[in-house]
């Protein structure tokens, strides 16, 4: 099974969201259309701007947690400032 760490971006609200999943398409659909509660519904529409793939859930979870730290947020900010998204 492959695990995907992803960053979503809401251009309308200039917000990012970090998560991980085994089914990116279904998860993305949930963030943009299906979910009726949660933090992502108020910042729609989202677009996927960054992906990383992992073979283990532990690795993916650790990377997701790191991206949510101060250093991870700096990493994301640098992606944005370098026009990555």
From TrEMBL:
SUPFAM superfamilies: GIY-YIG endonuclease. One of its GO terms (molecular function) is endonuclease activity. CDD domains: GIY-YIG_SLX1_like. Keywords: Endonuclease, Hydrolase, Nuclease. PROSITE patterns: GIY_YIG. Pfam families: GIY-YIG. InterPro entries: GIY-YIG_endonuc, GIY-YIG_endonuc_sf, UPF0213_domain. It comes from the Bacteria. Residues 1-77 form the GIY-YIG domain. Belongs to the UPF0213 family. This is Putative endonuclease.
């Amino acid at each position: 099974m492959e695990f995907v760490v992803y960053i979503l971006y809401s251009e309308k609200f200039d917000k990012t969201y970090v998560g991980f999943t085994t089914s990116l398409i279904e998860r993305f659909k949930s963030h943009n259309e299906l979910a009726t509660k949660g933090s992502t519904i108020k910042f729609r529409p989202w677009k996927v701007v960054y992906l990383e793939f992992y073979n283990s859930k532990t690795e993916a979870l650790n990377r997701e947690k790191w991206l949510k730290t101060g250093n991870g947020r700096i990493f994301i900010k640098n992606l944005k400032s370098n026009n990555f998204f």
